[in-house]
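#struct-help
A.M.: can someone run this one for me? Single chain, 280 residues.
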Amino acid sequence: MSVVSLLGVNILNNPAKFTDNYVFEITFECLEQLEKDLEWKLTYVGSATSDQYDQELDSLLVGPIPVGVNKFIFEADAPKTNRIPDADILGVTVVLLTCSYDGREFVRVGYYVNNEYESDELNADPPAKPIVEKIRRNVLADKPRVTRFAIKWDSEASAPPEFPPEQPEADLQPDEEEYGADELEEEGEEEEAAAVENAGESSAAAVAADGDAEMAGVENGEPAEEDEMSEEGSVDLENESEDELEEEVDGEAGEGGDDAMDVDEKPAADTAKPQELMAH
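D.P.: on it. Structure tokens below:
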């Protein structure tokens, strides 16, 4: 379970001019006393074709963090247009609000941002060189994309389980022994079946020879009593071994993913008023 839960993000100046600062009011809940500060960052995605145009607009440390519901204001600079391709200044892009603890990111909120001219005339026929002063931005604040990550906080008990889990016993046996075991067993059973079949044929031949000898010693034509050998008790050892070697293994795999959802549920009505925090 996460020690810090994001409860709400309000964009205080939306819509705004492209050159205006971003101003966020962030509310979160802390369940345990933390030893370190929380680090918040705001990143502007300058182009969908390459992350080299991404800009970190601002970052700040918030702390110390008291247990309970907390609130603070995060203000970040507007992106620098000289680091954005002219073709990507207008249109839809993304800003990412992230929070990390001790260098480990545990929550990310993405917002779509639509940049367009204030006048319909410029939108209908935009100039080749964007006029930044006449561009306004509109953050789609009601449709955030929230992604959460399980991290280790202050105690070892809070560390998420490793995935995939370690399996040291898997390497104890060489691969050729592991994967060739079934084939060797099948070959051994086939050889055993062939040996049994050959032994049976030899016994039958011996019985037939004895019978011929007895018949040759009778003078008046009375045949000697033959040993009866029924086939009802015989077993198809080869077919039986194939059936026994058939084996089916089923496996299941689990997955996880991002949340296309709102931020965490707000605390109950009787929760105390959020504490104002100082950013530094």
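A.M.: thanks! The two ends are 27 Å apart (CA to CA).
D.P.: also worth noting: The first helix runs from residue 86 to 89.
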